[in-house]
Amino acid sequence: MNLGYTKITSADVSKLKNLENLQLYGTDITSIDLSNNTKLAHLSLSGCSKITYVDLTNNKKLQHIQLQSSGINDFQISGYSELEEVWLTYCIIEKVRITNCPNLTRLVCPMGTSAFDISGCTSLQSVDISELKSTLYSFKADNSGLRGVIDLSYCTYLQEVSMNNCTGIVGINVADCYSLSTLSVTDSSALYVNADNCLALWTAEVSDNVYKVVYGTETVDFRSVEGFGIYKVTVISGGKYSDGVFYFDEGSKMIVYNYFLSNNVYGQFIIEYN
């Protein structure tokens, strides 16, 4: 059903139980009830600036969702096994949560998002968060299909990053994320983490295949230390300076790396190992 660019302000599709395609783009509708349309596969509310929310709980057959330039301000769905594409361009959405959608291959992000979660989207290989750099505070992509180098640098309000069990990523760049306090990258394929200028970062949990961490003015290459698997790295600002060298504490299975950060501020890596 295509009602795009018509002058309608409401639409009753409750009796169309076999409806698979609904195009309402460019209309002035303020709400739509889709609870009876369980076979709906394609939905477009693009340009519907007066609608702020749509309940998709009963629409598990959705494959394509187009909400760009709409008034939608909250988008949270989970477990849509047939979903392939979601377009949120030019929407201002505070929370985006699209989880456990294994066939999702394309997500076009909105603006103004603070909490972003794509965990369990195993076919989603990339996502452009360039429009979220100034608003994002939480990024979660556990068990997702993200690949390559994940660039979250210069997200100045970012506090939390979780990318556990991501087997396609090579590296993670969170440089200049001044507010980042928690970083979790376990059971992943990441080989390095760039956390330069993350002065609020206290605890980072990384996989044992991570061999390099960049922090402050130092690059710590764990390949020079053999015989252990890293499972937790704790970064402490203001630690005791010890000429930038490793020392071993066999009793607690810990390696400590003290280093000079900048402006007479010292830091410390505490690397716990198995």
Structure commentary:
The chain is an all-beta fold and 274 residues long. It has a domain at 146-274. Helices cover 0% and strands 34% of the residues. The chain is built from no helices and 21 strands. The protein has strands spanning 21-23, 42-44, 64-66, 75-78, 85-87, 95-99, 106-108, 115-117, 138-140, 147-151, 160-162, 168-173, 182-185, 192-194, 203-206, 212-215, 218-221, 230-237, 246-249, 254-262, 265-273. The strands form three sheets. It has an eleven-stranded mixed sheet with strand order 4-6-8-9-11-13-15-18-21-20-19, with no helix packed on it. The protein is elongated, with a radius of gyration of 23 Å. Mean pLDDT is 81; it is low at 222-255 and 258-266.
Q: What string, H for helix and E for strand, traces the elements in order?
A: EEEEEEEEEEEEEEEEEEEEE
- Summarize the main sheet: 11 strands, mixed
The count of DSSP E runs of length 2 or more, i.e. the number of strands, is 21
**Share of helix, binned:** under 10%
